[in-house]
Write a structure and sequence with these properties.
11 helices; 456 residues; alpha+beta; single chain; nine-stranded mixed β-sheet; four-stranded mixed β-sheet
């Protein structure tokens, strides 16, 4: 009798335990969760081509140090809102190309401009693209045809990449945190030739390493998106590579087999990795950055609620008047290289009445759960990140080189000081003149307005 009674108790216990597990599972299933999908594609040029970044290059590419990649991370919140983060090992991308890519994604997936962020690593070891830095290099018709063909293939690969990431969407968890590493050096305030003799480096700097971690519901890592604000200019050789961000991504993917690592460039317009110019230094900085990311992953990260908001806007940044015809004529006669090419191009634009007086500057903001991300176009100097974090909190993620790389974006102080970032860099990008001093105010005002809408 006791045996039967004990058996009944045992079976009732098992049944109760099973019911408890069932309802716990049902409750978990009812909790709102993210969905995420990630994919990557090799974008290394198959042919020898001119490389973007350094105006002093005198020859096209000569082989591959490591492959170039484009990667896409799709996030979907509990209300079926989606965003797509696209990263690529490229120096930059013109607005004409990003507009075409975003237009195709809108047509195929109903994704607005606010929902798609294209961030370029700014490696100086990637290819020249259509309508981007043409006049810097001695391109004949054959080389231009290579560039146009590659650019078309690239656009198709990126659109296909997003399609693949969409197809892989599955329930996920998303986390955020900032790390730190310190190999960036403010190149305006520290002389590179004396870098090994300097004991007290001058700023400003922002050493933050923003990290997003995406894992499935079982805790398996799916994607790691991370950033840093520093020019990928360790290498000057004519071999394809992602420079230190490329090595960092390779290192992270080696640490965590099966994960996809995405690098986002920060507001590093005036930041260089110093010392530089060797492959071993590029590998060192890549490992340093990967170690900073690893440390963040090993510690507790903030879980993000599966709800999103996003915004995108373009603000017209005014340009000063172009040089006079006399000044341009003198440059055409006396200058060389891309300065002469720029002067000829400006002279022709003035004759044809084609000189632009302003430029539509893209600003993008995402709120992923409790984490804000700001994506700025062009090459913003580090003060933009510093000022934004001072106003909106140190946990803010600030990225440059997003959606359009049209020029350096200096602050009013840098404009007054001049130098490459404040004055002559405009020639490399084909703009007719320097920015007016109001651009800093216009950018921050637009960001303030967009962020105010998030709080309504």
């Amino acid at each position: 009798m006791n045996v039967k009674f004990n058996s009944c108790l045992f079976y009732f216990g098992v049944l109760a335990f099973g019911i408890s597990i069932f309802f716990q599972t049902q409750a978990q299933n009812l909790q709102p969760v993210w969905k995420a999908g990630v994919s990557k594609v090799d974008i290394t040029p198959e042919n020898t081509m001119w490389m973007a970044g350094y105006a002093g290059r005198i020859a096209p590419s000569q082989g591959t140090l490591h492959k170039l990649w484009a990667k896409a991370l799709v996030l979907e919140d509990s209300q079926d809102n989606q965003v797509v983060m696209i990263t690529a090992d490229l120096s930059g991308m013109p607005k004409s190309m990003t507009d075409r890519i975003k237009g195709r994604l809108e047509k195929q997936w109903s994704l607005s401009a606010a929902q798609v962020m294209l961030n370029l690593s700014h490696t100086h070891s990637g290819p020249v693209l259509k309508d981007y830095l043409y006049h810097i290099y001695p391109l004949d018709n054959q080389e231009i045809e290579k560039i146009n063909h590659y650019s078309t293939v690239l656009e198709n690969k990126i659109v296909k990449l997003v399609e693949e990431a969409m197809a892989l969407l599955k329930p996920a968890k998303v986390f955020a945190e900032n790390g730190v590493t310190r190999f960036q050096v403010n190149r305006r305030n520290n002389q590179e030739s004396k870098i090994l003799e300097i004991n007290d480096l001058a700023g400003p700097n922002d050493y933050a390493v923003p990290v997003l971690k995406v894992e499935d519901l079982e805790g398996k890592l799916m994607a790691i998106a991370f950033g840093y604000a520093c020019h990928p200019t360790v290498l000057g050789i004519n071999q394809w590579s992602g420079d230190y961000p490329g090595f960092a991504q390779l290192e992270i993917e080696k640490m965590y087999p099966g994960v996809t690592a995405l690098f986002l460039q920060g507001a590093g317009g005036d930041q260089n990795p110093l010392p530089r110019r060797t492959v071993s230094l590029a590998q060192q900085y890549g490992k340093e950055l990967a170690s900073a990311v690893e440390r963040v992953l090993l510690e507790e990260m903030r879980p993000l609620s599966p709800v999103m908001e996003m915004a995108y806007s373009e603000v017209d940044l005014p340009l000063n008047d172009p040089p006079s015809k006399e000044t341009l004529a003198k440059m055409i006669q006396e200058s060389t290289g891309h300065y002469q090419s720029w002067a000829k191009m400006m002279d022709e634009q003035i004759k044809n009445g084609e000189v632009i007086r302003s430029y539509p500057f893209p600003i993008q903001i995402w709120k992923l759960g409790e984490q804000f991300l700001i994506g700025l176009g062009g090459e913003p100097v580090i003060d933009y990140a510093i000022q934004l974090k001072r106003q909106y909190g140190k946990d803010l993620f600030v990225f440059g080189y997003s959606n359009d790389v049209m020029a350096y974006i200096p602050t009013r102080t840098v404009l007054m000081e001049g130098g490459y970032e404040g004055a002559t860099s405009q020639m490399a990008f084909g703009l007719p003149a320097t920015w007016k001093s109001t651009i800093e105010t216009l950018i921050f005002t637009k960001i303030d307005d967009l962020l105010a809408d998030f709080e309504k």
